[in-house]
Amino acid sequence: MIERILIDYVTAHHDFCAILLRYFNPIGAHESGLLGDDPNGIPNNLMPYICRVAAGQLEKLTIFGGDYPTPDGTCQRDYLHVVDLAVGHLKALEYAENHNGVEAINLGTGNGISVLELVTAFERANNIKLPYVIGPRRDGDLPAFWADAQKAESILGWIATRTVEDMCRSSWEFARKSAEQ
After folding, report:
1. Strands, E, within the chain: which ranges?
2. I need a labelling partner for 64 at 20 to 30 A (CA). Which of 5, 13, 81, 90 fits?
3. What distance in Å separates the CA atoms of residue 116 and residue 28, rounded to the nearest whole number?
4. Phi/psi at 89 (nearest 5 deg)?
């Protein structure tokens, strides 16, 4: 609905620019380890849940579905480092200062990473073994989806630069520092 409102506003005010940023699964934390994702209660997102399992605060990770039509049977998603996402916002603001109209732009890596690949990357990046089980699928989960970020590169000059291991390392660093406070 917000996108529709912005499109209507730009249609009525031709000197205005709106950038509709669409992104998928931001994870990771600031490299300082001071800013990151620490939800109250049991996390609903995968990376904070993984960090709580790694810290021993939760017994194990349940991966929802192991029979999807993907190489390892688990869902694939486009995980994007939150700092890359922040840079994408800055690039969009820079673009908007000198342009009019509406642009819908995906911010992502353009690569699908499976849940098992993310778990393995976390283990490798942080030298931690995570206990997990494969559980039943969740209703509504799609097997695989990721961004087509070509427009972000061509219009904004933006590409995601951080790796899955960077995302995993920074998430764990933030979780460890948060636990110390």
Report:
1. 17-23, 25-27, 61-64, 76-77, 79-81, 101-107, 113-114, 132-135
2. 81
3. 17
4. -65, -45
Burial 9-43 (b: 16+ CB within 10 A, else e): ebeeeeeebbbebebbbbbbbeeebeebbeeeeeb
Indicate yes or no: pTM above 0.85. yes
Q: HSE (CB half, 13 Å, CA atoms) of 28?
A: 25
Q: What is the pLDDT of residues 39-74, one digit of tens each?
A: 888 988 999 999 999 999 999 999 999 999 999 999
Amino acid at 152: A
In whole angstroms, how far apart are CA 135 and each of 63, 64, 131, 139, 159?
Answer: 6, 5, 13, 12, 34
CB-based burial, 145-170: b 16+ in 10 Å, e otherwise: ebbebeebeeebebbbebebebbbbb
User: For residues 75 and 65, what is the distance between their CA atoms, to the nearest angstrom?
Assistant: 8
Length of the chain: 181
CATH architecture type of domain 2-180 = Alpha-Beta Complex (3.90)
Gap between the Cα atoms of 81 and 171, Å rounded: 10
